[in-house]
Design goal:
- By secondary structure, this protein is α+β, with helices and mostly antiparallel strands.
- The chain has one domain: Aspartate Aminotransferase, domain 1 (Alpha-Beta Complex), CATH 3.90.1150.200.
- The protein has 6 helices and 5 strands; from the N terminus they run H-H-E-E-E-E-H-H-E-H-H.
- A 5-stranded antiparallel sheet has the order 1-2-3-4-5.
- A hairpin with a 2-residue loop joins strand 1 and strand 2.
- It is globular, with a radius of gyration of 15 Å.
Length: 149
């Protein structure tokens, strides 16, 4: 399932086969338990997203909520999008070191960590990275990046 048309997280989860639902559900628990106050869980771009709602920060370049974390079950793997890592080189270094120290291989694009099973992720490191950026910090980084373009 590369892109879902589900409109709720529950609908998205229910579309997944049980084994894949278990992985996404477990990762979702890690995210929710570490997510700073001010982010909202929802569906956007065909995946589960954690974003700053437009009623809190409407001034985005595309009129969409400012995304922070997203999770998706792709056809042959899972994706964990960490926008804080993409926007902050210190977080990227922290994530890479955390994978290395845990003896796990990091398969990552600019913000997308690809994995095949939950055990591929050092969940404590993922949780710490997610916990490290408040909505105010994300907005500040976003605004600074927008000024430089």
């Amino acid at each position: 399932m590369a892109k879902s048309s589900a409109t709720t997280v529950e609908q998205y989860l229910n579309e997944l086969p049980p084994d894949r639902r278990a992985v996404i559900s477990a990762l979702r628990e890690v995210i929710l338990s570490h997510l700073p106050d001010g982010y909202r869980e929802g569906m956007n771009w065909g995946m589960i997203t954690y974003e700053i709602p437009l009623d809190r920060y409407p001034d985005t370049y595309n009129g969409q909520p400012l995304g922070y974390v997203a999770v998706a079950a792709q056809k042959n793997y899972f994706s964990l999008y960490l926008m804080g890592v993409y926007q902050d080189s210190k977080q990227e270094t922290w994530l890479k070191q955390g994978f290395e120290q845990a003896g796990k291989k990091l398969d990552m694009g600019k913000s997308c960590v690809r994995f095949r099973k939950l055990d591929d992720l050092p969940l404590d490191v993922v949780g710490q990275v997610i916990a490290s950026t408040s909505p105010a910090d994300l907005i500040a980084v976003y605004e600074q990046a927008r000024r430089h373009h």
